[in-house]
Write a structure and sequence with these properties.
The complex is a heterodimer of chains A (302) and B (219). By secondary structure, chain A is α+β, with helices and mostly antiparallel strands. Chain A has helices spanning 2-21, 23-57, 73-85, 97-106, 111-115, 135-146, 159-200, 202-210, 215-259, 270-295; strands at residues 62-67, 89-95, 125-130, 151-156. Chain A has two domains: 2-57 and 163-298, no CATH class; 62-157, 2-Layer Sandwich (Alpha-Beta Plaits). A four-stranded antiparallel sheet of chain A has the order 2-3-1-4. In chain A, helix 1 (2-21) packs across helix 9, helix 7 (159-200) runs antiparallel to helix 9 and helix 9 packs antiparallel against helix 10. The longest helix of chain A is centred in the C-terminal third of the chain and has 45 residues, at 215-259. The mean pLDDT of chain A is 82. With 219 residues, chain B is an alpha/beta fold. Chain B has seven helices and ten strands. Chain B has helices spanning 43-50, 76-80, 98-109, 113-126, 142-154, 172-187, 199-205; strands at residues 4-12, 18-27, 32-36, 58-63, 66-67, 83-86, 160-164, 191-195, 208-213, 216-218. The longest helix of chain B is centred in the last third of the chain and has 16 residues, at 172-187. The chains are: A alpha+beta (302), B alpha/beta (219). At the A-B interface, helix 1 and helix 8 of A face helix 2 and helix 3 of B. The structure holds adenosine-5'-triphosphate and magnesium ion.
């Protein structure tokens, strides 16, 4: 156990030594990795913030129930009673057709259209505020209303929230794709870095093998090195994102001041940050592992 | 207990002729054996077969009861730790100093650092290089490099020393000293197998002599 720990310590020290042996080349590598990782990380941060905004500002979803044109006052009363007795609704209000027409007229641009109408083509309507529930629950409710007698159709008015949701889902997907592509880049970068290291340390590897080094002993410093490069790149990405947020929030602050709303993008929580770093380290390690497997096998006896 | 048994061993390098043909040879624990023969006779090849650096084309090489021809790759490092290897071309690492070169075998086995350093200095002292522990191999003479290689071979106190032309670059005085060093090791129970052209050395130490010519044993 002591020997095992000391072997790992040695590998770690040796990996650090390799990091400082060619500082410029490694710094460049780390910067490239940092920028590559900052892209998906930044996108992710913006997405997470948007999601928070959408949750905070989204009004309670409403469902409009349009009655058939020939609905009578009695029909309206029946529906009203039915809505009152329906559990799980936050509230509802009745919009008579005359009021709807007034609203239409008062809307700029549409006044002419409304004036040109002969009579009132609009139906009576109820606007229901649904209680808590996701898009699917809302849809079920809408379908239920649509099936009631004297109801022409029912609409969910929170379409914009759903659209934003869908947009965010697309965004998440894009971030995922971007992250996958750049993760591949990170793996490729460490793969190549380790390949070059193995080339320059060919003698050391050969001699070590000849005098009894195990494959594990030889590989370990390279793997640690890959992990280190990954972590360093991850930290660089995190800092770059933090810097971008700082600049962005400054701009946003002026804008928010104008509208009197507190607008501010926040960085990743520490748990997410830690995960991102570990992920980067894992990728570096993986790239190194691939490289080591590919390039160290040439040293076995024939 | 490190017995080395070769039975009907042949070695053919890829595309080459037979470097060794039908060699049967047993090296007992604690023996002092000199492998002699002309250049190209197959001395280095014989040592490489013993250390599992090459595998035999036919026949078997058995070290410590383990058949090298069938030994799995992950077993080889542990087999090699029984040996101290002095290479004909030294195989020193030129990007580190003498002390660090000698530390390598102990690093590999995961020795305690302080104990390792003590042993490394003792080994350097044995070959008369303690005052050059900070020197890089490039700054050492041919003979000094050879002695450094010997220090690295003995530092982990191996059961068997396999030395390929360990006195090749040394003047008579140092050759004698190194010869005495190997003989001292042999005295304390280390098996020593040494490939050499040096007839003088052989005459002085009175070892068992194995002569090969063109890859075959000469009776
Ligand atoms: N890696 C190799 N590939 C092909 N042929 C080889 C290889 N190594 C050695 N040989 C050949 O095998 C034969 C024996 O070589 P070996 O190195 O064992 O000789 P040696 O007795 O050690 O010679 P020297 O005294 O010059 O060191 C030689 O003919 C050599 O050319
Ligand atoms: Mg030779």
């Amino acid at each position: 156990m002591r020997a095992w720990a000391s072997a790992h310590r040695r590998a770690c020290v040796s990996a650090f030594a390799r990091l400082t042996a060619t500082p410029l080349a490694n710094l460049l590598n780390i910067t490239v990795i940092g920028i590559a990782l900052a892209l998906p990380l930044g996108f992710y941060v913006v997405l997470a913030n948007l999601q928070g905004l959408a949750r905070d500002f989204s009004p309670q979803p409403e469902i409009s129930i349009f009655l058939v044109a020939e609905a009578t006052a009695a029909d309206v009363r029946v529906l009203e009673l039915r809505l009152k007795s329906r559990a799980g609704l936050a509230g509802f209000r009745f919009v008579p057709r005359a009021q709807a027409l007034e609203q239409l007229k008062s809307r700029s641009g549409l006044a002419d259209v409304a004036a040109g109408l002969s009579g009132n083509p609009l139906p009576d309507a109820f606007v229901v505020t649904a209680g808590a529930g996701d898009a699917a629950a809302l849809e079920t409710l809408r379908a239920e209303f649509a099936a009631w007698p004297k109801v022409a159709e029912a609409h969910v008015d929170s379409d914009w929230a759903r659209r934003l949701d869908r947009l965010l889902a697309v965004g998440r997907y894009a971030v995922l794709m971007l992250a996958a592509a750049l993760a591949l880049a990170l793996v490729a970068i460490t793969f190549n870095t380790i390949r070059l290291q193995i080339l320059t340390q060919r003698d050391e590897i050969e001699v070590a093998k000849l005098i009894g080094a195990t494959d594990g002993w030889i590989q370990r410093p390279f793997l640690y090195f890959g992990g280190l490069i990954g972590i360093a790149g991850g930290i660089t990405a995190w800092l770059l994102t933090a810097l971008a947020l700082l600049v962005f929030n400054n701009q946003l602050g002026t804008l928010a001041g104008l509208y009197g709303v507190p607008l501010k993008l926040t960085h990743l929580f520490w748990a997410d940050s830690l995960f991102a770093l570990l992920f980067a380290a894992g990728l570096g390690w993986f790239g190194a592992w691939l490289s080591v497997r590919r390039h160290l096998s040439a040293h076995n006896p024939s | 207990m490190t017995q080395i048994v070769l039975s009907s061993v042949s070695k053919r390098y890829p595309g080459g002729h037979d470097a060794l043909a039908n060699i049967t040879l047993t090296v007992e624990t604690g023996e002092l054996v000199f492998i002699t023969g002309h250049s190209g006779a197959g001395k280095s090849t014989l040592l490489k077969l013993m250390a599992a650096i090459e595998r035999p084309t036919s026949g078997s090489v058995i070290v410590n009861g383990q058949n090298i021809g069938t030994l799995r790759a992950r077993g080889i490092p542990f087999l090699r730790r029984n040996f101290g290897l002095v290479f004909q071309d030294h195989k020193l690492l030129f990007d580190r100093n003498a002390f660090e070169n000698v530390m390598l075998p102990l690093d590999i086995t995961g020795y305690d650092r302080r104990e390792s350093a003590r042993r490394a200095r003792a080994a350097l002292d044995k070959v008369g290089l303690l005052h050059k522990e900070k020197a890089r191999p490039i700054a050492l003479s041919g003979g000094e490099q050879q002695r450094l290689c010997i220090a690295r071979a003995i530092v982990h106190r191996p059961a068997v020393l396999l030395a390929d032309e360990p006195t090749g670059n040394l003047d008579a005085e140092y050759a004698t000293e190194i010869g005495t060093l190997f003989s001292d090791f042999n005295q304390v129970g280390v098996t020593v197998v040494l490939a050499t052209h040096d007839a003088q050395l052989a005459a002085r130490l009175d070892p068992r002599i194995v002569n090969i010519r063109g890859g075959r044993l000469v009776a």
